[in-house]
Amino acid sequence: MTDKVEFSPSMPITPVFDVQARIKELQGFLDPSNPNYQPERQHKNIRAVIKLYEEGKIDGLKRTTIIDGKIVPYKAAFESKSGSWTEVRR
């Protein structure tokens, strides 16, 4: 006689995305003394992402692509001649 086998979920605790921590991390990317400092061409995009988080327009769960400080379709990142930033929870 076999017993029914039950498996636990592979990830029993849903990960929580800390928006405030992400905003702080993004702000660090603008600081030249930060080892993760990003190039000037990304600053407009990073500031836009910070603003979108602060306004609650993005949550970090859905992929959002920014070019020249504006939300664009993801595919545009491959065609852009300026810097692009794709924001999504890692």
UniProtKB/TrEMBL annotation:
It comes from the Eukaryota. This is Uncharacterized protein.
